[in-house]
């Protein structure tokens, strides 16, 4: 086992293919280094609030959408637990609500996370995208090193081999 300068990794899950690739990479990295691994899913209640304020959602739709997002979070975290178990790795999972970048930073500080693992940053189409992208915000404001996972085909193949 390789000695590394981090002990507790956090992988941020948002249900995207990129975050699932980051999860597989984080599992492999934790397994090879002996670091502990946590997976965090943030139910983006800030975005829901913005939709209600913009009158895109009414309150009833807000409640239904929030319930759907909470179900998605549970499903993705169960998947994370199964993937980690398939590699004989313990993983801690959690769901929180709020603004994703704030929630991730709060979690990192309160759980002594010293490495953040993110899926690839979305393609930036405008200056506004650049300023509002959650993964980008996490990358820019993280108090610790960040690994951005790319090359999904390679990760799938390596994950299957281990």
Helix and strand arrangement:
Elements: E1 8-13, H1 17-33, E2 36-44, H2 45-53, H3 59-86, E3 92-98, H4 100-110, E4 115-119, H5 127-132, H6 134-141, E5 146-149, H7 152-161
Parallel strand pairs: 1-2, 1-4, 2-3, 4-5
Helix pairs in contact: 1-7, 2-3, 4-6
Could you name the key traits of this structure?
five-stranded parallel sheet; 7 helices; 162 residues; Rossmann fold; 55% helix; alpha/beta
Quick rundown:
The protein contains seven helices and five strands. The chain is globular, with a radius of gyration of 16 Å.
What do you see in this structure?
This protein has 162 residues and is α/β, with parallel strands linked by helices. It has a single domain, classed as HUPs (Rossmann fold, 3-Layer(aba) Sandwich), CATH 3.40.50.620. Helices cover 55% and strands 19% of the residues. The chain contains 7 helices and 5 strands. Strand 1, helix 1 and strand 2 (36-44) form a beta-alpha-beta unit. Helix 1 packs across helix 7 and helix 4 packs parallel to helix 6 (134-141). The chain is globular and about 50 Å long. 28% of the residues are buried. Residues 124-131 have low confidence and may be disordered.
Please give the CATH architecture: 3-Layer(aba) Sandwich
Strand order of the largest sheet: 3-2-1-4-5
Sheet of most strands? 5 strands, parallel
Tally of helical runs: 7
Note the overall shape.
globular
Q: Which radius of gyration do the C-alpha atoms yield?
A: 16 Å
**CATH superfamily label:** HUPs
CATH top level label:
Alpha Beta
Helix content: 40-55%
CATH fold group: Rossmann fold
> Can you tell me the residue ranges where pLDDT is under 50 for at least 5 consecutive residues?
124-131
Q: Could you report the average pLDDT, rounded to the nearest whole number?
A: 84
Number of domains: 1
Which structural class fits the helix and strand makeup? alpha/beta
- Number of beta strands: 5
Q: Termini, distance in Å?
A: 15 Å
The SSE order reads: EHEHHEHEHHEH
Beta-strand content bin: 15-25%
């Amino acid at each position: 086992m390789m000695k590394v300068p981090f002990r507790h990794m956090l992988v941020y899950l948002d249900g995207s293919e990129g975050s699932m690739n980051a999860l597989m990479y984080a599992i492999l990295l934790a397994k090879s280094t002996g670091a502990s691994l946590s997976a965090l899913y943030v139910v983006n209640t800030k975005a829901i609030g913005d939709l209600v304020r913009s009158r895109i959602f009414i309150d009833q739709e807000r409640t239904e959408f929030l319930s759907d997002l909470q179900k998605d979070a549970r499903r993705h975290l169960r998947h994370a637990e199964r993937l980690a178990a398939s590699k004989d790795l313990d993983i801690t999972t959690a769901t929180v609500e709020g603004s994703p970048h704030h929630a991730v930073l709060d979690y990192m500080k309160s759980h002594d996370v010293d490495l953040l693992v993110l899926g690839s940053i979305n393609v930036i189409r405008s200056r506004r995208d650049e300023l509002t992208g959650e993964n980008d915000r996490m990358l820019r404001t993280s108090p610790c090193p960040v690994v951005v996972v790319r090359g999904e085909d390679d990760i799938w193949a390596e994950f299957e081999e281990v």
